[in-house]
């Protein structure tokens, strides 16, 4: 029986997203040093670029078929290998607020696009745009909803400590956007630090996917567990192996009839039957096939920037921009 609460709008699950379809995709050499999820075996040729283009095309169409409004932009540049991951350079927030973020890799700073911001202003009610990119000159980075996983309901910004998540930038964002910062150290079984929080956890309306074993401090881990328990969410603990299969890199979205959980086919296959059943109590899993893009060290969540803004007028479910 479908959970009746699933029919209620959730601020955690946006009904519109921005995606970027790459024309010249490749694995970014500038980010390989601290992204252990990147593949060293990724081919650097036209075949992977075409495949990545096709993967985003299919993924955007699949989301639109489930009732999600998809604003699909094209990236034809040769100097922006990670443009397919727009969630790192901007985020949107209820009340009409937009944030633009400072990026660690120099070539990733080229991903910021005025046309995306102008589209948001024209189709949604935007009150202000706060640009943190000037912090790059001081070596302070905060890579958007990769660096932070935001609990929109309880107003907590969970953030793994890394070079891509500076505490000063994090504090500044949380002050501006009314979030409580919850920073913590996390690493894999080999002691390699986790580079982005959104590979470690996904916060949905009624559940959370999280790699608890990677959180280093036991006291902090227990505090995080208690926070989610207090919110009434089901905690779906992911193993280290499941995290490496991108099972934590998912995002809950509002579809036409109910909420969905967008994740990769690889991530979905890594989940157990029990975990899938727990997800299905409040959201329909929607596996998307993006193996070429995952070679770059990110998965479905990274390819999606949620739009938490109020539309100016009804919009089609799948649009060019």
UniProtKB/TrEMBL annotation:
PANTHER family: AMIDINOTRANSFERASE
Protein name as it appears in the record: Amidinotransferase
Gene Ontology MF terms: transferase activity
This protein's record includes keyword Repressor: no
Keywords: Transferase
Domain of life (superkingdom): Bacteria
Organism: Cohaesibacter celericrescens
Pfam assignment, any one: DDAH_eukar
SUPFAM superfamilies cross-referenced by the UniProt entry: Pentein
